[in-house]
Design brief:
With 111 residues, this protein is an alpha/beta fold. The chain has 4 helices and 4 strands; from the N terminus they run E-E-H-E-H-E-H-H. This is Anti-sigma factor antagonist.
Length: 111
């Protein structure tokens, strides 16, 4: 399975599509692929499509934090797109939802 795909949008910003489980078994490979893709994207911003992500462990969350740092180094912004409810909940529990720019929706279990 291919866990990550990188492209550049029309403005040259890095677009990252993650899928499946992003965890300790593949996070190093995901980071390597993202770094290679970032070299080909001249724009400052990074968009991460999470629609196909089924699970993030702490290593997967660390991938998102690294992307935030990469965007900051490029004087850009990180945007998380289409996070499934489970992923939003994980980011909220980790205290990173706001920092990472996850869409502002409270976890389902908060009522």
């Amino acid at each position: 399975m291919e866990w990550v795909n990188t492209t550049a949008d029309a403005e040259g910003n890095l677009v990252v599509a993650l899928r499946g489980d992003i965890d300790f078994t593949n996070s190093a490979d995901v980071i390597r692929t993202i770094r290679a893709g970032a070299a080909d994207a001249a724009g400052p911003d990074i968009e991460v499509d999470l629609a196909a992500v089924t699970f993030l462990d702490s290593s997967g969350i660390a991938v998102l934090v690294r992307l935030l740092h990469l965007a900051e180094q490029r004087a850009g912004q990180l945007r998380l797109l289409h996070p499934p409810e489970k992923v939003r909940d994980q980011l909220y529990l980790a205290g990173l939802a706001e920092l990472l720019g996850a869409p502002d929706a409270p976890p389902s279990w908060l009522g």
